[in-house]
Amino acid sequence: MAGAVPPGAEVRVIGPPQELERVPLVANQRSLAWVSDRVAGIVEGRAPLWWWVAFVPSVVALLLLGAMLVYQISTGVGVWGNNHPVMWGWDIINFVWWIGIGHAGTLISAILFLLRQRWRTAVNRAAEAMTIFAVMCAGIYPALHVGRIWFDWWLFPVHNSQSLWPQFRSPLMWDVFAVSTYFTVSVLFWYMGLIPDLAVFRDRAKTKLRKFFYGLFALGWTGSNRHWSNYEKAYLILAGLSTPLVLSVHSIVSLDFAVSQLPGWHTTIFPPYFVAGAIFSGFGMVLTLLIPLRKWCHLEDIITQRHIDVMCKVTLATGSIVGYAYGMEFFIAWYSGSPYERFAFINRAMGPYAWGYWTMIFCNVVAPQLFWSRRIRSNLLVVWILSIVVNVGMWFERFVIIVISLHRDFLAANWGHYLPTWVDVCTYLGTFGLFFTCFLLFMRFLPMIAIAEVKGVTPQADPHHPLGGAKSGGHPA
Amino acid sequence: MSSSPHIPNAPPLDLSRWRQVPNWLIVGGAAGALLGLVLSPRQFGYSWLLAFMFFLSLALGGLFLVLVHHLFDAGWSVPIRRFCEHLACLLAPWLAVLFLPIAVLAPTLYGWMSVADPHADHALHAKWPLFTKPAWYAVTALCFGVWWWLSSRLRYWSLRQDQTGAPECTYKMRRYAGGGIFLFALTLTLAAILWMKGLMYHWFSTMYGVYYFAASVWLTVATVYIITMVLKRTRTLEAVLHEHQFYFLGSLLFAFTVFYAYIHFSQYFIIWNANVPEETFWYVIREQGTWFYVGLVIIFGHFFVPFLALLRIDLKLTFGWMLPVCLWAWAMHYLDLAFNILPVAHPDGYPWQWAWLDLACTALIGGLLAKAWLKSLHRHPPYPLRDPRLAEAMGHVHPVASPISGGEMDETDELADAGADGRRGAS
């Protein structure tokens, strides 16, 4: 049928040249026992100094959050900088920012699992934890911004004393259901993955207290064939359920803006653009967290340079998609001929907040292009700095969408300037306290690497490999 | 049709009696298209545009698959890459030449070209200078120029590697893919806007480029599945294919089924919810007459049917099931493009009286492109003979010192353990 090679001809198969060999997912031929020892060692040993250096300020910031919440609830939302014409300010910016960060974990766990991306095993557990804590931080803002927090229960469809029901046509209501569902399923998924590793901790525990609690949460896991079979079925089902949730949450967040008629908000590309941005910022935060942690916890052989490299590429891809969306928004604002749309975008780029717009463009579109260079991707310090640049850029994206779109309304009489108050700033700093306190506690008490899954991608787990199966007992000969 | 990708003892598929099909399509299509041109040049233009955009989807989708193959350093897609390169190379000169009737009839097809005073029409005035004839033709030339350059360079280095086996060719293709993906996004968006969205130039949507992209890749993946299946049955790719090619193609088809629905629903929902007349009119027109029912068929046929059909893993590997699903994808994409293009000329409903002309134009373009593609397939090796990832694509582990391939492949179960030298030859 086709030229040069007749049908049925023998195929000469050779491996790739050395320069194109795949780099193994676990470096230095580490044994299965080494993986368990190294991950469990983070939890079993004494807390290192760096952990305390990070933990104490985090708790202080968490206390600051508590103080700000008490002050805000007892005084009212007037303590924030929200005011006419910018009636949404840092509260929604930070809500969207944290929710975006909360996308990487479940994406890595669910979507990359379905896509058979095995590199995910080294980073999925920490990313899932990050997701849960980020969504907790995000959830604070909508709960508070209603003003009278004691009426938050009205958001749920329970028959209350006034026979009032939630307004289901409001995208804010969709947020409530999307975020709470996402949080619930993410926690379930995270816990499901933890079970085999909790059993490892249980079996290694040297105190009764540890044995009791790890045993309790390991749910009687024995590692039997039946347990693994059920586990893998459940994991696949949860991955299937989580996948649409990952995409739906930020799509629905985007609808908070897009279903309005406001120039700069009402644009059809918002759902995929928000999802791409969320993955972008989520991977930015994963890199920010894991690059120092792999060094401090001596996990370089598990979270390898290859993992960093792949995550840089995901960041580059999503950053470019976000750049496309920025371009399309601007282009269609011009194309539409709508003077309001045109003004909204020219005002973004050349108005009083132009510095915010260009910071966003630099951080989200220009800076990630450096990841095209392999040298940049292999320089961990540069990657870490760029990951922070991404986080900053994504915060500014929300600032641009919310503040710059609102501060100059259709009428010049409705123009104004927005400034956050000290309460806004301290509340935001406080959410970092919540996030890092939770994360640091997580890594001290739970396996921050999915031990069983990492073992599954080692050569020893491959029965056809020279090191695999029972040939050498899982240890290099 | 076998129910499994593994059919070691089945006789090779004999396609000799189908050899004349492209010729019949060309002859029959040309006769119908000529008759249509004589009867109604305007209707011929719309029918031709519909057929052209359909096959443009296929070629652009082929280019996209080649680009992402290199960008992701994919292993599994090596055996199917060569015929995707041929699909991409249909963009120029073939599709460029087939665009000529549209270029000639453009003033008839695109209402904005015949507006007496463009500056008196605000929507047109605002789009100056893009919506002027010189700019429209210049952008068209730019798109075909970029596509020609990208597709030809990628295939050139791919064929070069067949001879040299040099890793340098892989690096070259990656570099082209790196820059090419940006050019691809830009040109596809411009083409979708100028050639389709521009038919109703008052309307605008930031999603439109993404919409055409999603639909195009969906169609292409369905087509690639069929081609892979046929080339396996003819024994052309039998030796280098593994089950996972079919699984991944089925999964991609499923993913793009959902992605397309997500994109189209988002566009519709945001426009419906905001209810701005400058945007809603596009959908209001498409709720008139039979277009309403066409819309319903697209909702169910473009999403629900393939979604349900592709849910199960085992069905993605069942030829007898996947063949009708992929053919269904062709029908749905064609209908979707008709839903986009034809209401401009026929706002009251689908023009059944001209259906024969739509089919004739599709047959003519399809026949010509099929002949061109088959010629390329015959002229060159059917898969990249010395691609460094070929062994991986075939499901072979290739242990070097000791680590495996990095865990890319799900299944390496067809082979015995590696020899002592760590290298493995295969038949």
Report what the structure shows.
The complex is a heterodimer of chains A (477) and B (427). By secondary structure, chain A is mainly α. Chain A has a single domain (28-159, 167-461), classed as Formate dehydrogenase/DMSO reductase domain (Formate dehydrogenase/DMSO reductase fold), CATH 1.20.1630.10. In chain A, 65% of the residues lie in helices and 0% in strands. Chain A has helices at residues 32-44, 49-75, 90-101, 104-114, 124-145, 171-204, 208-217, 225-258, 270-296, 305-336, 339-350, 354-366, 374-377, 380-406, 422-445, 451-456. In chain A, helix 2 (49-75) crosses helix 15 (422-445), helix 5 (124-145) packs across helix 9 and helix 5 runs antiparallel to helix 15 (422-445). Chain A is globular. The model of chain A has no long low-confidence stretch (mean pLDDT 91). Chain B is mainly α and 427 residues long. Chain B has one domain (19-426). Chain B has 15 helices and no strands. Chain B has helices at 21-39, 41-71, 78-89, 91-98, 100-109, 122-126, 133-164, 167-196, 208-233, 243-274, 277-285, 291-309, 319-341, 355-379, 390-393. In chain B, helix 1 (21-39) packs across helix 2, helix 2 crosses helix 9 and helix 9 (208-233) packs antiparallel against helix 13. The radius of gyration of chain B is 23 Å and the shape is globular. At the A-B interface, helix 8, helix 9 and helix 10 of A face helix 6, helix 8, helix 9, helix 10 and helix 14 of B.
